Amino acid sequence: MRARLGFATFGFAVLFGAVAVTLADRTVINPASSAIAQPRPLPRAEPPVTRAEIVDRNNEVLAVTVRGRALYARPAHIQDPEAVAALLHPILPHLDRERLVARLSPPYVFAYIDRFITPRQEEAINALGIVGLNFETAERRTYPRGRDAAHVLGLVDVDNQGLFGAERWFDERLRVDRNALRLSLDIRVQRELRETLAHTVERFSGIGGVAMLMDVNTGEMLGMASLPDFSGADPAGSPAGNRFHRAVEGVYEPGSTMKLLTAAMALELGTVQMHSGFDASRPIRFGRHSISDFRGKNRWLALPEIIAYSSNIASAHMAMTVGTARHREFLARFGIARHQRLGIELPESAAILLPGERDWRDIHTMTIGFGHGVSITPLHVINAAATLANGGLFRTPTILAQPDGAEREGTRVISERTSHQMRRLMRIAVTEGSARGANAPGYFVGGKTGTALKPNPGGRGYSTDRRVSAFVGVFPMHAPRYAVYLMVDEPRPRADTGPFATAGVVAAPAAGRVIQRVAPILGLVPETERVAEIEQALHVPLQPARPRAAPAAPSVAAPRPSATRPAPAIAPTLPEVAPIRRTGLPGGAIQTAEGRHASP
Questions:
Q1: Which residue has the higher pLDDT, 332 or 578?
Q2: Catalytic residue at 256?
Q3: Where are the alpha helices (DSSP H) in 237-353?
Q4: pLDDT tens per residue, range 544-568
Q5: Cα end-to-end span (Å), the chain
Q6: Whole-angstrom Cα distance, residue 279 to residue 320?
Q7: Which is the catalytic residue, given 256, 276, 292, 562?
């Protein structure tokens, strides 16, 4: 009995020992996972795309990065590249078949076949079961608005690096900061600008054009259209030359739009008054050169008449009253200096073409006074007009949206008095001059046309049938808010416009249509109740009161202030007139041996 009990005790001891060892192993040494149901782990959040969105001032998406799949090959694992290419080509028909065969063959070790494919294409390729074809996560930059603002936005390369435009200027910002980049553009305004410009370029058979809209008080660009353009969604579908951004890359002679700066310069420096004038009865002879007027009045002209009738002769006399040194200094205030670029956030911004200090002679001051002999960008022109009208504060133009109600710092370049006088002169050019077509009822537009013949390709003389026709203006003139610029490159005359394709026929009417279409979008309604009051506040007579006798014009060979016809000075400021109502919506000629250059 004792033996049996001892054996049983030993057996139970071994059994319980084995259980104890097993429990220790399972719970302490190598614990097993619990059989109790556990909640499924949440899927890991997909990392954000590597490039931030670009939006307009109203947060409409202009550029966005989307994630997809890329197809690549390892040619060493592909037995028959031609057969594989034959199978892939129906799925990816946009690929060149010969190039596809080359990328599937040695000596390539790794080759991208397509950097971005659709889920349906991935499924079809997977179904082929081809060894050596693989997929990886990829990103592609897309531009939902197509051609709208394409030049401003720019493009990226296959590695999502900015090539030009805002994509290049803000490249690091877009890669580091995931918050959307908000531009000053209003895509609604942008579309209206492009549509009107495209219609005008087509109507006059031009080779291109520019249309812009700027806030005169902040320098924000609300729209910048350049034609020809391209689609950001399909950049390869347009010639590479279409990427040329005429608004900031193109430099053109400004023609008579430059007379606004000449008048402002003479008023600011005190060499003329509003009632001053110059003899424009005969051309100015300077060596073998002759400066004449396009459809000139052939008489003495007061300052308002000089602007309204766009006299080259009188503008040249007026520039000479200032002299070459002060002329250069004044233009530099507006960013118009040799090799000067405006600091807008676009890397393509071009430097202007202007004579150097040593080369600048009297003839240059005379011709530049009416817009000939200097080449500047359209952006310089609209920014100068905005500065003349906004009270005299120069601000660097920007494509970045500014905080609502924020005041951007500016540099005073002319007095408020001169600015008020220039607003009157700009208005009379629209009501009495060649810019009548730009008049938009209720918006009190002011501005100036400019037509400049283009140099011959060989560089000698000017073409007789190739020109640039432009208009620059501001509205409403009694309470300036926006500046507009429209230019058509090489317009052709039409049967219904006679033998002319000048700015008054081409650009001014198109600018008037732009104003009528975009002003309501910007919350401005046409003024109908205070028209007489506002017109009176902006009025300046073409021939201000003066004595009967008028002195002779100054000598061109010896620059000096022009003799003027005394008259009561015009009030230094405009009478107080309330701004235009808002809705609740958000937010020149030179005669040379080679030919004639006209800038009416």
A1: 332
A2: yes
A3: 259-268, 303-308, 312-320, 324-333
A4: 876 455 454 444 333 333 334 333 3
A5: 135
A6: 13
A7: 256
CA–CA separation, 305 vs 283, rounded Å? 17
Secondary element (H or E) of residue 151 = helix 150-153
Q: Which pTM value belongs to this model? A: 0.82
Q: What letter represents residue 91's amino acid? A: I
- From CA 250, how far away is CA 248, in angstroms rounded? 6
Statement: residue 576 has pLDDT above 50: no
Q: pLDDT digits over 6-62, tens only?
A: 777 777 777 777 777 777 777 767 765 555 555 565 555 556 778 999 999 999 999
Which pair of tokens denotes residue 187?
A: 């895509």
- E strands, 220-286, are 221-227, 277-279, 284-286
Q: Please, what is the angle between helix 119-128 and helix 81-88, to 10°?
A: 140
Beta strands in 169-306 (DSSP E): 181-182, 208-215, 221-227, 277-279, 284-286, 289-292, 300-302
250, 378 Cβ separation under 8 angstroms: yes
Could you give the angle at which helices 259-268 and 312-320 cross, rounded to 10 degrees? 40
Q: Are 321 and 330 in contact (CB under 8 A)?
A: no
* Helix residue ranges per DSSP H, 485-554: 503-521, 531-538
Q: What is the pLDDT of residue 45?
A: 54
